[in-house]
Structure formats: C-alpha cells, structure tokens
Amino acid sequence: MQKLIVDLQPVGRRASIPAGESLLSAAQAAGINLISICGGNGLCLECRVRLINGKLSPLSLVEEANLDESDLENGIRLACQAIPLSDVKVDIPPESLSAAQRLQVEGQEEVVELEPQVLPRDLTFPPPSLADLRDDLTRLRDTFGPSLDHHLSIDTQVMVQFSEQMRAWNWKGRLAIDQDGRVVSVLPDREELYGFAVDIGTTKLAAYLVSLENGRIAGKQGAMNPQIAYGEDVVARIAYANQGVEHRRTLQTRLVDTLNGLLSDLRQAAGVSQAQVVDAAIVGNTAMHHLFAGLSVRQLGQAPYVAALTEAINLPASQVGLDLAPGARIYLPPNIAGYVGADHVSMLIATHAWEMPGVTLALDIGTNTEICLSTGSRLLSCSTASGPAFEGAHIQAGMRAAPGAIERVQTIEGSLQFSTIENQLPVGVCGSGILDAVAELLANGVIDSRGVFRYISERVIPTDRGGAFLLVPGEQTGHHTDILVTRKDINEIQLAKAAIRAGVEILLIEAGLKAQDIEHFIVAGAFGTYLYLPNAVRIGMFPDLPHERYHQVGNAAGIGACQMLVSRRKRAMASEILKRMEYVELTTHPKFSDTFVDMMALKRN
Amino acid sequence: MQKLIVDLQPVGRRASIPAGESLLSAAQAAGINLISICGGNGLCLECRVRLINGKLSPLSLVEEANLDESDLENGIRLACQAIPLSDVKVDIPPESLSAAQRLQVEGQEEVVELEPQVLPRDLTFPPPSLADLRDDLTRLRDTFGPSLDHHLSIDTQVMVQFSEQMRAWNWKGRLAIDQDGRVVSVLPDREELYGFAVDIGTTKLAAYLVSLENGRIAGKQGAMNPQIAYGEDVVARIAYANQGVEHRRTLQTRLVDTLNGLLSDLRQAAGVSQAQVVDAAIVGNTAMHHLFAGLSVRQLGQAPYVAALTEAINLPASQVGLDLAPGARIYLPPNIAGYVGADHVSMLIATHAWEMPGVTLALDIGTNTEICLSTGSRLLSCSTASGPAFEGAHIQAGMRAAPGAIERVQTIEGSLQFSTIENQLPVGVCGSGILDAVAELLANGVIDSRGVFRYISERVIPTDRGGAFLLVPGEQTGHHTDILVTRKDINEIQLAKAAIRAGVEILLIEAGLKAQDIEHFIVAGAFGTYLYLPNAVRIGMFPDLPHERYHQVGNAAGIGACQMLVSRRKRAMASEILKRMEYVELTTHPKFSDTFVDMMALKRN
Question: Is the ipTM of this complex over 0.95?
Fold first, then answer.
C-alpha cells in the first residue's frame, strides 16, 4: 500500500500514513495531541492546521462552510477533513495543540533592587489661556523640567498624546520618563508602569510582564518562535534571511507579531494598557538579536562569523513595531561575539556566574553551546558547535520535548525503564532521554567507551550501520513503530559531548586551570535543567566534580532579562561583562582538535 | 518695419518685435526672465524654448552642435539663436525661467556660507578575519571614531547598510555623518551629498533638491498641497483632523506621499539616489508643521490657539515616512505661536528682516497674515485674521490665481482695463485683481472711502445689497456671466486690509514707533509678489511710505528652508529668533478693536 510522509511542524515529527488517511490520523500516529473534541467528525472545528507544502484533498463541505476567506488564503484546513494526496508538510498552530510544549519560563528568581530606567511622575499643569499662551511643550518643560537632572525631551508620537490627553484629563496626569529625560508615555494619574521582558530562543519564546514599581512578574507566557517555519536552526534561518531584504524583514515581522500577541495576552490578563508598558528588555543569541533588531545576519553565516554589533542598544519600539507605549525604547543587552549572544550575558547576570568568588563555569547547551569561565580575575568565553542532537534532531527517534517524548531512561532492577512527558505512550526520545539512554547503555556494558555495541542483550539488533538498541518495541509505542537507539545516534551524542567538554577544557587551559579547580558549575537552559547530571558526568560531558558544585538553573536568560528590565545596575553589569570578557575562538585554537578527539570517548573523567 | 507677434506660454505674455530679432529679445521685451547667463551668445545653452506653432529661422551652428535628436523632435530651440519668420507661439519650460511663474519657488537667492549638518567621509576599513574578530560596529568606531568630536552613533537601519554594503564594496565607501556623530547614510566612495528643502504652503508646495557640498539648487518643483481635498483652508483642515486619529494620519500621509513624489522626480532628474539625500529642512505654518510632524492640531482649532510645540525639532525621516537616506533627520525650524509658523521664521532669515539695521517690517499675506517688526533691538510679531479674500474666497467672482483670472485692473485713458492670467477670456478675479479693482473704483470716485457706491457710471448697478460694479459684461467673459464687484466684495477687502494694517499699527504702538519710521517694508509670499504696491498704499492696506522702502521678495520661506538646509548658522538664527521674538496677541490687545475700525476706511494714510 502506498505510504505518504506527513511532516508536522513546528514539533518536528514525521508520520508515514497509508494513502487515504487524514492529517488528524497522521498527527495521532506521530503522537501529537491535536485537539479533536468531536473525535474527527468535523463538528468541533478545533483541529485547524496550515498547509506549508504538498497537496491535500479538495475542501470538504464542512470546510467550505466553516473556513473563511482569510483562512483559505493562509492555507488553513481542518486536519480531520484534509487527506494528503502527496507527501505534505503542515504547521500546527499552538491553539490546535491540546497540550502546549513544555516551555521554560522559570528560573531561580531573586529579589533585585528596583532601579528602573523609566519612572512615573504625577503632575498637574496650568491650562493655557489668553493670558498664558505658552505652547504645550514649553508648558511641560516649565512645569516639569526644573525637577529633572537631564534636559527634557519628547518624541512627536508622545507629544501628540500629551496635547490631546492633557486636555481630555483637564491638565492632570502621569508621565513616564526615562533616565535621560525622555518622556515615554502619557497616562492617567497613578497608573502603574510595566515592562516587557523576553528571551528569544531559536525554538521558543519566553515572555514576561513585569511591574516597574514593585518588580513583581505580573504574568509570563511562552510560545514557539514562528521563524521555525523558515528554518529549524540558526544556520537555516540565516540562510533564509540572506536570500533578500524581504526575507529578513519577514523573519523580523513574524517574530514581532508573535511577541505582540504574547504581550497583548499578558496585558489583557493583567488589565494593563499599552501606554502602561513603558520599557522592554529583550535577550537572545546573536542571530535572534540581529534579526529582531533588523541588523544584517549575512556575516553570521560566513567565516569569521562576526556580529554586526556587540554593544548594548536601545531601539525605539516603534521602529521594530513592538506595541509598547509610544515613546518606549527596547533595551537589548550586549552580545559577546557572533555565536555568544546577549542571552548568555543575561544568564551570567541572573546566575551571578560572572561575579562569584571562586572559579565558576557556566554554560547553556544548544546547537551552539556557550561557555563562560570566571576565574575571579578573568572572564573567558567560547562557543562550541555541539549540534542539535540534544534538541532531538539527527537522532533517529529524536523529537523535541513534547508530550510522548521519552525524557528519562533508568536501569531499575536490571532492566531499562523509561518515562515520557505527560506519561503518554512514547513516540520518540528528547534530549534528556537520549543522554540517559547512552549513559545507561554504557553503564550496563551494552556499549563500550568508543560507543560500539556489544551484543550482550537480545535488544541489541545487528544492522549494517553498527547495530541498534531496541528501547521500546512498536507495540508499546504511540505510533506502533519501534523506538531504537542506533550506533549513529550514539555517535551524535559523542560528537556533542566532545564539543562541549573540549570547550570547557580549552577555557581551562587558557586560564591555566584544571577541571577540578571549578568550584561552581552552572548549567542553564531548558535542556540543562532536565538533563540527569550524573549521566552527563558518567559519559564525560561534564567533569567529575563533587555533586554539590553543580547548579541547574533553568531559563536564567529570561530571568536575567526581567532583572535588567527593572535594574539599571544590572544593565551596567552587562556592559561591564562585555568589556571584560575575553572571547576565545575555538576553531583556530591550537589545542582544540586534539582535545575534541580525546573527549569523544564515553567515560567519566 | 514689419512687426511679428511672439506669444510666450505658459506665462501668457505677448511681445511685438521687429523682424530679425530673436526669441530671447521677444522674451526680454515681454519682461520674462529667460535664463541667459552668456548674454545671448549661444554659450550657456540655458535659454531652451519649444516652438508650438509658427516659423523660425533654420537651426544655427550652435544649435546643431548642442541640441540632440529628442530635442529636435520636441521642437526645442535656443531662444538666443532662433529668429521668428512669422508670428509664433513658443512654450518656455520652467527650467528655462530664472523666475518660475505662479508656483513661486524663487525668492531672492543669496550665497550662504556652507556649513551643513551632515558631512561626507570617505573611509577604508580593515576587513574582519580569524585574527581580527571585531564586530562591524567596533570596527567602524575604531577606524572612524577617533577623528570625531562626538561619540559615534548609528541606527540599526543604517547599521544594516554598513554591514551589507561594506562587504559588497570591499570595505571601502563613504559615510554621511551629522554634527552629533550620527551616521546617516552609507554610500559608494565619493558620492555627492544632497538635501531636500520644502515650503509646505496651505495651498502649494515648493520643493528643492540642494547639493550639500556646493550649495547649488540641483532642482526645484512645485505641486498643489493634496490636503486641499480635505479642506480648503487651515481651519477646515484642522476641523477634519480633529474628527479622529485616522483623519489626522490621512492628512499626514497624503502630504508625505506627495513630497515623496516630488523628491523622487527631483532625484531622477538630477541622477541622485535616495541614500544620497541625507538631510531635509521643511517649513510651513504652524498647522502644516504639526500635521506633517504628527502633532495634535486640536488646540490650534480652539482658543487660545496655542502650538503643541514651538522649538525646532529634528524628526527621523523614517518616522514620518519621508524617503530620505535611512538615518536622515528632518529639521523643522521653530514656530513662534499657533498662527505664526516656521515659514515666517524662514522668511525672516531669507530676507534678513530680523537682523537688518533700521526699523524693518516684514509680512506674508494669507488667510492669516503674519507680521514681524524689527526695531533693531526688539523683535515683535503677530498674526492677524485677514481672511481669504485675497485668495479669491468670499468674493462673488473670486478665484485662485489660475488661467483666466483677472490679475490686473488699470484705468487707461479714463476707462477700466483688465488683463488675465495667460491672456485667456476672463472667468473671475484673483487677489491682485480685486485689490486693483477696489483701488481703481476708489480713485475714480465710483466708491467712497466707506466703500459705498456712487452712481456716477452706468456700470454701477443698483442692488438690494448695496450695489455692484460691472467689471466685465457676460458677453466678454469665458463663461458668459457678468463679472461683478459687489458692495460685499468691497467690504471683504476693507476687512482684510483693516486687519493687516491694524496688525502693523499695533506692532508699531508696542514698539513706540510710527509707520513713517519703517525703513524697510518687506512683502513676502505669492500674493505679496503679484500685488500692485501703489494700490495697496492707495487703499491704506500698507502705509504711505516712499516707494523704495518696499521690497517684494517672492517665496522667501522656501529660500530660507534651502539656506537652513545647508547652514547650521542659519538654523541657530532660527532658534535665536524664537528666543527673542515677542509675540503680540491681537485679540486681547486693548487698542486692536479701535485701530481695526479706524482702518476700515479706504484711504491713503
């Protein structure tokens, strides 16, 4: 029977289904929880998906009756009605998923001294009269200016609010003004000021609405980065952007639109107006930073991979189209280099890694893993190409951390047990699961330190590509397909862990230190939080240090953004980090290749 | 001797010349300022005209050598070379006129010392390499920054150009940088920098493309203000804008679109790219200024009519959507008050009225007439509500200065004669025509100083509204309708002239001076240029001063904008004028009403 491939985005799963079955069946086969309250009968209209490419059956009567013109223009279909006529690629909008993917929006929060960039001032003005013909700006300056340290300034977008609202409010209101004397927003008396903090991950966005008057996080929300539709990883997205100005603008616009949606949701839930959101702090890796700010990413796609700029910038919100108060600026902290971004700086601030007494190492694992070593006197950083294996890519049964992903593998009473996200039937393995699996296979002697299978279990299946381990037989899975860990999968993990560990070692060499000198080893980010540390040590990805020296800190980059949002002192720290940081280029480092090869072995060291 | 008639279009003048004389002589005889730098010797090639009909001498050697094929197809000739062989009709293209017609884009130009806000710098940068991983901005700063007085800054819209173009141009190019250290544009090596100057009139726009490197006006063009579709005068337009934010934005957008069209035409004619246009200076009355800048005009529509702001501002071109270089700013000179705008300041700069030795009065007549009195030590200004009569409104047969408008009325050999624009059949009367008509009726005793008709001519027709004078019988007009000057029309002129003269008198009173003390009386603007001065004096609109004290200066506001575009010193003057100017509010002035009533009388004084 003919089989068709359905590629489901942004989750990144593929299903192979018999011709004639619907997209809903494909999603179910792939273990993806598309909402289908009516059971696929075309009644609930919840299973909306968007065709990216390929050919589907013509519109059904149900679809004709229920999809509007803009749906059709956007390629929206009902998954229970649409039947693939070719291999297809479809996008599943978040609202069609019954369980959102696990989004990391929490770190270890601390109380930061409030010192925001934008402050409120309640004011009453004398109204104009035939005896007092001062223009509105002069009236504002004369009343307000003398109490400011800086020369008062105001953009025309804010000035128009001042002229209109002060008349509507009888010359009494609140102004939000920044530390440079710029009026950012015109508000009714006593309205609370808020800020918007975002961590733009290549895959996920984490957004926070924060009170600038008490530092409280009023709301937080996650979403997928919509740029995924234009390239799964940073390299693909840079390639897309470089195809033309319009492409770069599309990536920017899609991202900003999604951020505006998140902000609007957060504002509505908290009862906050746009005029009340007077500041923003946004972090991301250098490519995300550049795409958001409208900078060139061409040079990030070709050696020597330099950033367009590294220093902190303040961008008018209106310039990028972010729906903040009319005069608001967006603070973007400094990047360190082309592949060590502002998100890394933000993490260093949130974790204090850069200023801790004693030797501290902090890293955030991703396709590129950024590593910082603080010796107490020096700050060193590098980026190492660890690849996407821990994000589920390049792994045969790999998937992102979504419901049905095997996230944990343990040996219990001599047999390999697993658990999945939300305890659903397994459909694949995410990063922490594959790390566990490799470590357990090693511990059980199923593989040796070179990653080679030993045929000591019937679950080791010989293949012409070096064998595979049967982690879950098809009959126990959500899609009736065996879940295997292959020789190639193990090799991907070896490459990843060697890259990470070699990066750590090169920084230590540069600082004249040994691994055992590391007093604090900080692991940030989503994968870093879920990974089982003893297994990372067991395969030699992390050095063999006493357990208490390790700290798993969650999405510290997002928390750092919240801190910089409310604290000018934290912003100053970011600039100090940029100034002090010594960036170490690994690709030209004389000892990197040898160290990398040494670190391929799966062993505690 | 045989005489030939030369009909000169679109100016609409005829000359009668002896056979054998050139078209240039004909134009000179008709008082038309054809450009002829070389004095008619066939050297400058500026006096290009187009033959519409009739017969000219064969091409001269000079013409054969200098006119190309498309010129010849279009009937282009050099006026100094071509000799009529019959009555002829020729068209004079605007670029061949040293003073353009109706769309007044020339005043009295002077050479201004070049001191532009934006300067070019040709630079070569070391390209990045694995041994030199500086980000692009740091590379820019390190190479360029040390030679600057200010901290170098660059918007992301310009930074993206830098990153992309420097790679395309092999790290060699020209940067345009302003006096604050801001990079405005990234250009190929040695490309000339230009600026865009505009006078936004309520009715007409005058636009100029000016070289910032030699101060030369590379092109000029006029257009109607497209906002006219939303309201003929300032008050109507303010009312429209106040109906909602979208209305205000429409007025802004339509205006900006038209300016972009003018700029695009000027750029194309001069072979100048958008990136080369690195600065702009734009003037207009306060309402035009506010609508262009996106400020509120609500308060301009209600007492006490204050401006949103008066100080000079620099607006990012991208904020209003003007198609300049990506980082360009638009300089908007200060306004004085709600009804004394930046165009008045610009006129004072271009005419030097504010800084002349001796008592100087300068005014620009419109629906509101702005008047400035400079005593040598004090600067005073006011705005007086002179109404739209001189724009042809509220006058029974009134019209704008367009073809067929009676623009001149004279008593010749005891009878009232008139001439029309472009010598077409009369269809109405424009401002200068109605002023002449009233003055001539007064001089001939047809009306008395109160404006009351005396029935001494059969052309005075009794009506129940105070009578009317038959200026042109219907059978001689273009629309077969009598053109009348009514008692009400005369009253409108009385109100207008009383308002203007009372404004002048109040400023004199404030300064402790008499009209006879005025040493220079400067009349600016289109109507001010076309009006027949002796008649303005005859009816008492202007004081009875020796003729040589009067100066009609054309569109000085536009020329002032060009000067401020290329000279920071002129911009500083504008701010100094704002600082020094004493604004006199007429509506509450204790002597205004009495003076106004006194000045209603039509008499020399």
Answer: no
